[in-house]
Amino acid sequence: MAELTMIEAIRAALFRALEEDPDIVIFGEDVGIDGGVFRATDGLIQRFGAARVRDTPLSETVIAGVAVGAAAHGLRPVAEIQFMGFIYSAIDQLVNHAARLRNRTRGRLGCPMVLRAPFGGGVKAPEHHSESMEAMLAHIPGLRVVIPSSPTRAYGLLLAAIRDPDPVVFLEPKRLYRSVSEAVEDNGKALPLDRAFVLREGGDVTLVTWGAMVQESREAADLLADEGIFAEMIDLGTLKPYDRATVRDSVRKTGRCVIVHEAPLTAGFGAEIAADLAEHCLTSLLAPVRRVAGYDTVMPYPRLERHYMPSTARVVNAVRSVMEFT
Amino acid sequence: MVEQQPSPSISGFLDATAEVRRPLPDFAKDRATLVEMYAAMVLTRAFDTKAIALQRTGRLGTYASSLGQEAIGVGVASAMRPEDVFLPSFREHGAQLVRGVTLDELLLYWGGDERGNDFKGPRQDFPVCIPVASQFPHAAGVALAMKQKGEPGVAVAVAGDGATSKGDFYEAMNIVGAWQLPAVFVINNNQWAISVRRKDQTAAETLAQKAVAAGLPGEQVDGNDVIAVREAVGRALDRARAGEGGALIECLSYRLGDHTTADDASRYREEEEVSPRWKEEPVARLRKYLTDAHSWSKTDEEELLRSCREDVETAAERYLATGPEAARAMFDTLFAEMPADLAAPAEGLENG
Ligand SMILES: Cc1ncc(C[n+]2csc(CCOP(=O)(O)OP(=O)(O)O)c2C)c(N)n1
Ligand SMILES: [Mg+2]
Hints:
The complex is a heterodimer of chains A (about 325) and B (about 350).
Chain A: E1 2-5, H1 6-20, E2 24-28, H2 44-48, E3 53-55, H3 60-72, E4 76-80, H4 88-98, H5 101-104, E5 114-119, H6 134-138, E6 144-146, H7 151-163, E7 168-173, E8 181-184, E9 197-200, E10 205-209, H8 213-226, E11 231-235, E12 238-240, H9 244-254, E13 257-264, H10 269-280, E14 290-294, H11 302-308, H12 312-324
Parallel strand pairs in A: 2-3, 2-4, 4-5, 5-7, 6-7, 10-11, 10-13, 13-14
Antiparallel strand pairs in A: 1-8, 6-12, 9-11
Chain B: H1 31-56, H2 70-79, E1 85-87, H3 93-99, H4 103-110, H5 135-149, E2 155-160, H6 167-178, E3 183-189, E4 192-193, E5 196-197, H7 198-201, E6 218-222, H8 226-241, E7 247-252, H9 271-274, H10 282-294, H11 298-320, H12 329-332, H13 340-350
Parallel strand pairs in B: 1-2, 2-3, 3-7, 6-7
Antiparallel strand pairs in B: 4-5
The complex binds thiamine diphosphate and magnesium ion.
Thiamine diphosphate (TPP) binds near residues 130 and 132 of chain B.
């Protein structure tokens, strides 16, 4: 079994998808001969040709809109937005078309497309390249939002997203692209969408997170274990629709919950989880639900970036505070 | 105020007085074909009239009439083949009817029922696109799928003059050019975008010239001459089908009615501007030509009007007798398979 980084795992999933389904086309800016600015599509054009791996003109509206039209007419586009910071002009197409075509035609036309986009901070990228705006997308009815947190889950979830008959936005935490590698079996097996992954079991507190913040959450859980506090760690994997049952069950067991996300606090996805727990698990809660999140500021430039990103220490402190709550 | 008049350089066959200006294309020498197009325009107008009446009496939602622009929709759709895909704006009922969308489906859609988009006829055609110009990228995508799969079809999208100010329009034309896709974009230039005049929409002399930037051929046609619309679109379709890429066609017409039933055009335009435009409208023009050249009789006309009205009336009766879907329909086709998240609210609805 090969040791793969996340970017290599994504490439392996794209390669396999192109091999197994002739209707799959990949397109985006610089995804052809350049192999994508992060190399997710490296070598694909050589193997599958310029008709199936296409460099688009520089237009996000068109990348998303062409994906909608092509998907409705029998292709299965896997399109790339070069950075999430440039997804906004594609959102019109996602909200007004991709997410509602099946519904508004009462099932006549579907939209089996995947829109991939690298996102998140921590790599000292230029302005507009580091934001985490997943909650905006998760608010859109009819759209799936999937975020992997490891090479294995990137591989399995991307295959699942590509095979799914409905539109999926697949957000890739670019801080993890090359920072971790693990053995990934390139066996074509998808992981389930809409299901959370319990990455670690524990009885004292539930940590709910996704994407790159799985790193800080794991470090925090290790440190807390040394103090005798055992955290159950849940990676949502699919943000919309998220696996409420797994989160609720865990919190009913632990009585405490800390949600960790890089995105800004207010109206971040953590708010939805906290509200769900308040509605469904009130009598199990031993402490208020806490959120460790980015600030409600504009994402700072690289020099101040690390002060913005939720740190392991902030997660540890939040957990301590819910443990001490009486 | 000088309004844009279809100038002699704009391709047309029948002028406003139904005189033949240029040798007619073959299809227009055939009486049956002309009568078919004429009948489609008359049906479109009868449908518009009924739809407005239904809206005014609280039995239909906000409605956008195509009064005066019937030649565009009918010309476009009659040039198309069944395997082509049509992507309409909200003003192209004429084209939709020719494509095989039923009167009942149109009424359901405008009456606020999604089932109106589940066309039983043209299964691959897109539903009406409300966000202006956002269907152009879809047409490029459909064209990509056709090209990729080796299908012989062409994607045809129609939108208004206002739509040409949007990025989607330029960006989609650009990719159609860059990838040489079989997509034809048609502009219904009815001179108004709600209350904004064509001249205030853009300083470009023509809308057709916007194609130049994308490396596509662009041309203006007299949008009140159904023969001209069909001929120009037909030529563009032939080129696209032969793998020679897309085109832009600007059809010059005039919006004789309000923007929609929610609009009152008297707030922003004078009746003196509108009345001369009635002399150019497409239905009377083709009727005159049929009468002059093909012995279209008063009886023929009366019979056609009667049958169109009857079709529309009976469709309206069926529509009015159709109850809404069960409330849970809003959940049922949101995804191919309902996610667990939605099952509970869908159940809840059913149980009150
Ligand atoms: C993107 C977008 N902006 C605004 C509107 C509201 N709106 C509906 S129709 C219209 C004018 C459209 O004018 P035009 O493109 O000329 O088409 P017409 O209505 O004349 O057929 C506007 C502003 C809309 N539907 N979509
Ligand atoms: Mg207009």
